[in-house]
Specification:
Blueprint: H1 3-6, H2 10-35, H3 37-41, H4 45-53, H5 58-80
């Protein structure tokens, strides 16, 4: 089955989401831990909010990880489907 045939099936996109969502959560958690370990461990929500959420900063935190997760999900699903 070719890639174009695979992306037309519903099961392909279900598999993409099954892979992409956990990958996104893991990448986001690792990113937050690496960049703000002490704030995450101390549950300092105000610091995290000012660093990553206020003034539209969430776009630069979330969007690249979403794109990377979906690309990874498509790549893995495409490789594993027959």
């Amino acid at each position: 089955m070719t890639f174009l045939e695979k992306i037309k099936t519903k099961i392909f996109w279900i598999n993409v989401l099954k892979i992409a969502f956990p990958f996104f959560i893991i990448v986001l958690a690792i990113s937050l831990l690496v960049n703000s370990f002490s704030s995450v461990i101390n549950l300092d929500i105000e610091t995290l909010k000012s660093l990553y959420i206020s003034e539209g900063k969430w776009k630069f935190l979330i969007l690249p990880k979403i794109i990377m997760s979906i690309a990874y999900g498509i790549w893995i699903s495409q490789r594993n489907m027959k």
